[in-house]
Design brief:
By secondary structure, the protein is α/β, with parallel strands linked by helices. Helix content is 31%, strand content 16%. It folds into 2 domains: 182 residues, Rossmann fold; 119 residues, UDP-galactose 4-epimerase, domain 1.
């Protein structure tokens, strides 16, 4: 097959290109050449910009498009309409953030969707991100009726994670000492290795599969305690985990998800408990968690600190640093009248 990837050089897009090449497809990347301009063997590179710079796509023909970089409905509409006669199938990477609520746990693809107060906005913020993705999905379906796959991705992890959510934990635990572990060890956690998602998406494109799928994992329940213990085992660390209550962290201004990586308070637990039954039935599989931890740690360990967190479209809160971690642990022990 001839596959066109919109993006293809940063995280999920990079793994999509790898998966497509491994399955002997012909790959074309369309991007601005900013995230990683390095040429790749066996890959056609088209330079352009989704905002008014789509000319490089003219005259091309592809069996399928994989869109990893669509956030604004107007820009998704422009690309999808331009490609409607040039490609047979369109896969759009959406997000679990499209849902208005995650309660009760077990939310499937029929859950209520976010509605933007101003549907004309193009400002991508924490408040508008999910609603914009809803509108992007609709633009893709209009341009490719019955030929569109909408992938509502959860937390993506693995090598090349530029948001540093997952690498933080293996790196921190490998350093040893007392580690601030957030909330309860039994709190649910959902995530998917970007390589597993990429392989599944390529196979779905091969089958011209349509519809909408929640795409996170794993199939069996996972907890944050299991993740941290796996990090300790993989890195052969002697670190000790001190579990600190959610309310204690919230009262001290610790930001969920990105301030203290992967942590969400109990009020948001449903985000980590959505149903993936439909995607699993369609062939989405998951490698062992230890493999993801090991591969990510080996990729991350040699990187200098300046490379660990790249700029994102939505500004993220400052991550928890060593000094702040020590301060919080000291406060926690003092509040419980325990020796630090």
């Amino acid at each position: 097959m001839k596959l066109l990837i919109l993006g293809g050089t940063r995280f999920l897009g990079r793994h999509l290109a790898d998966a497509a090449l491994a399955r002997r497809h012909r790959v074309t990347l369309f991007n601005r050449g900013i995230a990683d301009p390095t040429p790749r063997d066996g890959v056609e590179q088209l330079r352009g910009d989704r905002d008014g710079g789509l000319g490089a796509l003219d005259g091309g023909r592809w069996d399928a498009v994989l869109d990893t970089s669509g956030y604004v409905p107007r820009l998704v509409r422009d690309a999808a309409r331009r490609l409607a006669r040039a490609a047979g199938h369109y896969t759009f990477v959406s997000s679990l953030s499209v849902y208005e609520t995650y309660d009760p746990p077990g939310l499937d693809e029929g859950g209520p969707l976010r509605v933007l107060a101003d549907p004309t906005t193009e400002a991508v913020t924490g408040e508008t991100y999910g609603g914009l993705k809803v509108l992007c999905e609709r633009e893709v379906e209009r341009a490719f009726p019955g030929r569109a796959l909408r992938v509502r991705a959860g937390l993506l992890v693995g090598p090349h994670d530029y948001m540093d959510r997952f690498p933080y934990w293996s790196r921190r635990i490998a350093r040893g000492g007392e580690v601030l572990a957030p909330g309860r060890p039994g709190a649910p956690l959902q995530l998917v290795d970007a390589r597993d998602l990429a392989d599944w998406m390529v196979r779905m494109a091969e089958a011209s599969a349509g519809g909408v799928f929640n795409a996170t994992g794993p199939e069996a329940p996972l907890t944050i305690g299991t993740l941290l213990e796996t990090c300790r085992a993989v890195t052969a660390s002697d670190a000790t985990l001190t579990w600190v209550d959610d309310d204690f962290l919230l009262a001290r201004g610790v930001a969920p998800l990105d301030g203290l990586q992967l942590w969400v308070p109990p009020s948001f637990t449903g985000f980590n408990a959505v149903s993936v039954a439909k995607a699993v039935a369609a062939g989405l599989g998951y490698r062992p968690l230890a493999d993801t931890v090991r591969d990510t740690f080996e990729w991350d360990a040699p990187r200098p600190p300046a490379q660990r967190r790249k700029p994102t479209m939505i500004p993220l809160p400052e991550p928890l640093g060593p000094q702040r971690e020590r301060e919080l642990l000291a406060e926690w022990h003092a509040a419980r009248h325990e020796p630090a």
